[in-house]
Structures are given as structure tokens and as C-alpha cells.
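Illustration 12: Short-chain fatty acid transporter.
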Amino acid sequence: MEQNSRDNAATDKAAARQGIVGGLVYVFEQVMPDPFVLSIGLTVLVSLLAFAFAPHASLPTLLTSWYGGTFNILGFALQMILILATGYAIAEAPVVQRGLRAMAARVQTPARAALLVFPVVGICAWLNWGLGLIVGALLSREIAKRVKVDFAWLVAGSYSAWSICNSGLSSSIALSQASHGNALNLVEKATGQVIPLSETVFASFVFIPTVLVVVVMTAVFIWIHPKAEHVVAFTQPRTQSDAGAGADDDPHARHADPTSFAARAEQSLFGTLILLALGVGYLAMTWHAKGFELDINTTILIFLLVGLALQRTPIAYADAIRRAARQTGSMLLQYPMYGGIMGIMTGTGLAATIAKTFVVIATPATLPLWSYLSSLIITLLVPSAGGHWAVQGPFVLPAALGLHASIPRTTMGVAMAENVSNMLQPFWAVPVVAIAGIRIQRVMGYTAITFAVSLVIYAGALWLIP
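Figure caption equivalent — predicted structure in C-alpha cell form:
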């Protein structure tokens, strides 16, 4: 009788969790349209709000602002695509793949799987969000081939570890504010100053909760792993078109005679060595003259050089980038749309109007928290951090200036909330589950727990850590 009661209670909990997860999945799959379609709707909404509330709203101003914003952001859009692509190429390098397999071979239990996945994926995501995304999916597959673990639990764990990426070295929000002349460096446009990474990514109020999320969620995932009788183990997916697919899968690949000049040039290390010499030489010269510093371009250059060194030949690197490009299509469409929204908000004065509302309800101490809370909602509608900043930055930054609040803290409040809400917004989970070969519905049941825990950790850090 007692055993039946425990079984019934477990069944009720599972049903309740499935109900919550089912509701989330229904909203994002059946109610929420594709992010590109959603960006069109947001453009219409912002335009209507501008005509209703903005002080300078007129049709010519709106159209001019939209056009300018749409095309001024293209440089930044390419930078973000290169961040993903260069990280992808590193993750796909044969030496990295062998390393992942070697690490996976040492795992024997679900607890050890979590103890491996969280720090490895967390470090990779902190270095480069594209690298972390791919390493998480591939490492999960390699572990699941060898150990009986719940595969959805494992993939969700890797995605949860990846969630810290917007607090790392490839954070589009932090990097854009550290990059002189960047289209999305709204701080520099307003104050003439850039914010170095020492005040954002490496600041204690960002770095401490970033580490805490990885440590705490490792313990949480070990605790919530399903009992043996409820484990759904890994099964080989029907398709092999994952990150490890070869160049032969590319319909545009050229198959030259191995003895031809073209093939020898493609396989030669000479081209790689030239690029490595140029890149390392530039970094050495610049850092010697100005001291060590990172911005978007130097970050991309470092990832490019590392990927070239790991892939070794120019053709291997080019093939890796071609495969990475398959994941960037949605970004090509989204960034220009959100740039247009940013243009409308700033050009018509709508951003300034919203900022005045924040000035009324917030104080210098509470504005970063208000920035964080509003960002949680905006992330669900704008899943890309760069596009998100294009929408939210134009009104939270003027509010920070008006209140004399901490600009780095207000800025990173947006990025930290992006980390949290990504656990409910499946936009970035799609490539992970596609590579891993699992349905997203099962993964989201676990990432909802990460959302709740990281929500509290980041909010507490913004409020309590100086």
C-alpha cells in the first residue's frame, strides 16, 4: 500500500511537470510565431506606439529612422555571425572532437556526467557562445553513448551550462559597449566613453553569479536525475546531418583531383601559417602598444586564429565555416529588423519617453534591477542578445544617465536576464536538440528549473554584490 502511494505521488508530480512543460511548449510552438515574423509584428507595434506617444513622430521621420537603423546594424550583425561561426569551427576541429570523446569515456554515472558537462560547457560558453552551444550538444551525445543517463536531462544540463554565455567574453552586449565606433555602442554615443570588459564581464556582480549558476545547477541536476526505471536513454537519431557531418554533405563542395594544384593549395599549411602570422603579429603589436584589451573584432580574430590552428588546413576551416553557416540564417534576418526597431525608437523620441517612465519609478539603486526584470520579458520576444540590446538599450541607458545610476550594472542587467530567459525561450535550444537528436519538449521541462534558480541568483547579485 505504501509503495503504491509513493508511485502515485511520483506519477502526480510527473503529470504536473508535463502539464507545465506542455503549456510552455504549446505557447512557443503553437502561439509564438517564428522570430522573423515576430520581429515584423514588433516593428508594427513600435511604430504605433511612436505615433501615439513619441514627441517627434511623423511618417517621414519614422521611415527615415527605420531605414537608417536597418542598415546601420549590418556590420554588427556580421560580427555576431562570425562569433558563432568561428566558435563552431573550433568545436568541430578533430582534436576537440577527440578530446570530447576522451572526456566522455571517463564518465560512469549520471553524477559524473553532470560534474563533467557543467564546467566544460560553462567554460566553453563563457569563452564563445557558439563554441559552448556545439560542445554541449556533442559532449552530451558522446556521454549518452557510453552511460545510461536520461538523455533529455543531459542535453538540458548542457544547455543550462551554456546559459551563462551572455556574461562571458563573447557577450554581444558587453563587447559592443567595449568597441569604439560600434553601431550598438549606445554608451559611447551618449557619453563618449566605452565600457571596458573589466567593468562588465569581469566585474564581481557579473562574474560571481555566473560561477554560482554553474556550481548550483550542477548540484541541482545531480539531485533531479530520474530514477533508473524512468530513464529514457539515448537512441541514434535518424539523420546524421549534425555538426560532425563531413564536407561531402555540402552540395556546393568541389571534388578536385588530389594531385591537382587546387587540391594541393587547399591542403597546404602555408595559407594557414600566413593568416596566423598576420593575426598574431597584429595582436602582439597592438597589445604591446596599448596594453591588453578586447573588443568584438579582436575577440573574433582570436577565435579565427584558434580555429585555423586546430583545423590546420585552409580547406578544412572553410568547410567548417560552411557548415556553421547553416545555423546563421535566422540571424541574417533578425538583426536588420531589430536595428530598424531601434532606429524608430531613437529617431522618433519613443525611447526617451519610455526612459522618463523609468526615471519616475526607479532610483539609482533599483534601476539595474528594473532593467533586469523588463529584460526577462523582452528576451522572450527578442531571443538574440544583440537584437535585444537594440530594442531595450535606447530606453534603459537614458534612464541610467538621468538617474546617475551605474551604467555598467544597468547594461549587464539586460545581458544577465538574457541568460535566464533563454531557459524558457527555445530559440537557441533548437540547434542543440537538432545536433543531439532529441525532441525539445522533454528538454524544456528541466531548463524551466534552471530558469527559476538562475532568476534568483542573478537578481540577488545585481541587488547585493557591489
